[in-house]
């Protein structure tokens, strides 16, 4: 039998299975082994690009048996956040996990987390070994990493290609821009849109020339995202066109009213009377979504493309004052949503982590968060985005204010906690647990999915942990009750022996 025939027969058997194709599985494996040996005969092994690092023995003391047992219990019980927090505390104490627990953590948790030296899962030893093996980072071999990423860019799934694009962008923004140009017309519209979103997170002046050309994309959705990227970048030509359109629709009028003739300000808003076909070239969409007025929809898009800072400088006012004036108009929703889009820049959740990209106007962050979060019907995603734009050291105070505002349903405000690092402070934990308990005691159902429950139980301060469990247990299913009991026993050990 020739090699080609042998390979085709083996492929058929592997595809259909030996029960349908026939043949002995053992004989099939032997056939493939022989064929592989023949193909590789005489081929020299590739030499390593770098010499394996010399790794010193980890001399840090082991954690106590009870802590090791608690971490192992958390790993087996899919309590990934508790594992991460425990490992960070172990690292700060200068200790390490025993080998058998290291292996368990590696097998059951996120590998990217497990190989982080801070996590004490083998410490620097595992990190160095992983890098040398080429698992991530290709330390000492940037060319090898680039080649692997370019291969994934060519042959991967859409999700893998977007992931490769983001990493290539960090390595060589000019080179990846050329890769993007080469196959752009042949990409699916959905992928083109996702790639523009990924580009927007790190958009830079050198991208402008190509983005201007991409405004002519055949897809309406892609054109809109390209326009958003250009607006985030601060493209001078687009910014001027967008501002002229917006200024023709929204004007600030100052007048003296009342017996005391006090000077008051008000916004006069007049949406466009008709659609201008030229707006298509800037990514505007003519047809309004279901339930939206046509002219109001055009107004929102026009405001969203205009530079946020231009409103304050031209009208000589502040974001907070503009938001208050907008509330007195018939087009408050359109103005506020448009300003939020323009002022907050790019934002995404990548691999479970919030990424706040380039662009935006920090002066608008806090006023927008307070305005959006206290509406009768809060807008959770834009509000979260506004909180993430606020300075990190000021976020907790802002979230506490929004949680206590009482606006909308509690479930609409709880996602704001995702903007804060773990673990939570004592005041934040106390406030959150009290709000949750009050809602449940008043008969209001607050749905928390498995991810939210895991985050709450890992993040809350020890002083509020018992009260949190009591609230969660009151409406828990049997499976969730078992999970909560597991978390309780783990936290009891970690909080006593590894205080934050």
Q: What is the structure about, briefly put?
A:
By secondary structure, this protein is mainly alpha-helical.
Write a structural description:
The chain has 27 helices and four strands. It is mainly α. Among the domains are: 3-39; 65-123, no CATH class; 142-233; 422-500, no CATH class. The strands form two sheets. Strands 1-2 form a two-stranded antiparallel sheet. The chain has a two-stranded antiparallel sheet with strand order 3-4. A hairpin with a 4-residue loop joins strand 1 (250-257) and strand 2. Helix 9 (142-155) runs antiparallel to helix 10 (158-171) and helix 10 (158-171) runs antiparallel to helix 11 (173-183). Mean pLDDT is 82; it is low at 1-5 and 111-140.
Could you list some keywords that capture this structure?
single chain; 500 residues; 4 strands; two-stranded antiparallel ribbon; mainly alpha; 5% strand
What topology does this entry show?
Elements (H helix, E strand, L loop, with lengths): L2 H14 L1 H4 L3 H16 L24 H12 L3 H13 L6 H10 L2 H4 L8 H10 L9 H14 L2 H14 L1 H11 L5 H13 L6 H7 L5 H14 L2 H14 E8 L4 E8 L24 H12 L2 H8 L3 H8 L5 H13 L2 E4 L2 E4 L8 H9 L6 H10 L2 H12 L6 H4 L12 H16 L8 H10 L2 H12 L4 H20 L3
Antiparallel strand pairs: 1-2, 3-4
Helix pairs in contact: 1-3, 4-5, 4-6, 4-27, 5-25, 9-10, 10-11, 10-12, 12-14, 13-14, 15-16, 16-19, 19-21, 20-21, 24-26, 26-27
Strand order of the largest sheet: 1-2
β content, as a range? under 5%
Low-confidence stretches: 1-5, 111-140
- Please count the helical segments: 27
Reported for the largest beta sheet, the result is: 2 strands, antiparallel
Q: What is the number of E strands? A: 4
* Average of per-residue pLDDT values: 82
The value of Rg in angstroms is 29 Å
Span between termini: 68 Å
Fraction of residues in H or I helices: 55-70%
Overall structural class, as computed from helix and strand content, comes to mainly alpha
- Overall form: globular
